[in-house]
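# nightly structure sweep
# worker-07 picked up a monomer target from the shared queue
# config: single-sequence mode, recycle default, output format = structure tokens
# input follows
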Amino acid sequence: MSDKEEKRTKPSVRQRASAIKAFRSKNLIVVLEDPAQIRNIGTVIRNVNAFGAEKLYVIDPHGKLPDDWEEARKRKSLQKSSVSAVQWTFVKRFDSTEACIAHLKKRGFKSIATSPHQKDKPSFYLHEPDFTKTSRLAVWFGNEGRGLTDQAIDHAEYCIAIPMFGIIESFNLGTSSGIVLYEITKQRRAYQARFKGPGRRKRRKTPLPTEMPIGESFGQKSE
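# output follows
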């Protein structure tokens, strides 16, 4: 461990890790399918960490990232674009969409796709679905230029789209993932605050908080 990393594990960071534990969105995985730019992976890592999703899966058929994530974490491009969130985020790499789908299926995850204008798949605006109905949920984001593959869309339960009102219906990957994760994690934190486990069968006697008090940054710097 470097001196810099050791400093980041001082009491302020451990205190922050303990404080945010109850706010994490359990069993929520973000999937990036064949992202073109390494810096965009770092930006999504930052969003995954900030909004409290549990893990990030990266489908990387061209081998942009090493299999050993400990090695990938040391890359300056990921360190800079994620603002060091790469140090605190679980990331798993896959060679193919098929391998990622098989992994998710084996673990009982349902998938949804961020892809507008799909004629043969149920589609909803972001604010319409109930993202708490599925206890194990994976949300997919596609390549910056091509979007998601047909295979990924076919695997999804349904598609979601962000309402847009400009001439150009387009957000970059960092912006779109941030907007989508805000809505999904907000719903799932509210659910976790009221219920234990899936199915709404075990209501908590005292609901948990869904937001941290403003100003409790424990020394963390914003940008």
